[in-house]
Design goal:
Blueprint lengths: L9 H19 L3 H5 L2 E8 L9 H16 L1 E14 L2 E14 L2 E16 L2 E19 L3
Parallel strand pairs: 1-5
Antiparallel strand pairs: 2-3, 3-4, 4-5
Length: 144
């Protein structure tokens, strides 16, 4: 089976992958403003933290502090992107390997992001990002 690839979309795919990396590093570095800049002005994040659905730059930026309080030091690794396009909008499904280090313990989990993206002033941004927990795959105590 041969799958076709739209070479004209290669730049868009690379830009969305770069957006994923910017998002990961921003939340891991606790940089709320940079993380919020990954979203449209009305962008929403449907979080794993119960009842949390921050929307818009101010709520999104503030949410990063809550993430760090809840999970501790975080490491986000995204891979296996499936991206489809419809004009200036796109959908993405991507695996998240999520590591959290808190109280001397490290936990690793697999999640899946479901993303809706829009081009804003020529740049791709998330208009909506949903995260779905799948499974914890590791837990260990830090050596003392």
């Amino acid at each position: 089976m041969t799958e076709t690839f739209d070479k004209a979309r290669l730049a868009d795919i690379l830009e969305i992958k770069a957006l994923n990396a910017k998002y990961n590093y921003a939340v891991d570095d606790a940089d709320g403003e940079k993380w919020a800049s990954c979203f449209t002005k009305t962008g929403v994040f449907n979080a794993l933290i119960e009842g949390q659905r921050p929307c818009g730059p101010q709520e999104l930026a503030a949410f990063v502090g809550l993430c760090n309080e809840t999970f501790g030091m975080m490491h986000h690794l995204t891979t296996n992107e499936i991206i489809s396009f419809d004009g200036a909008t796109a959908r993405q499904k991507v695996y998240l390997q999520f590591f959290a280090v808190k109280d001397g313990k490290t936990e690793g989990s697999i999640c899946v992001y479901q993303d809706w993206l829009e081009q804003v002033d020529g740049a791709w941004k998330y208009s909506r990002r949903d995260v779905e927990y799948k499974v914890k795959f590791t837990e260990f105590a830090q050596p003392t």
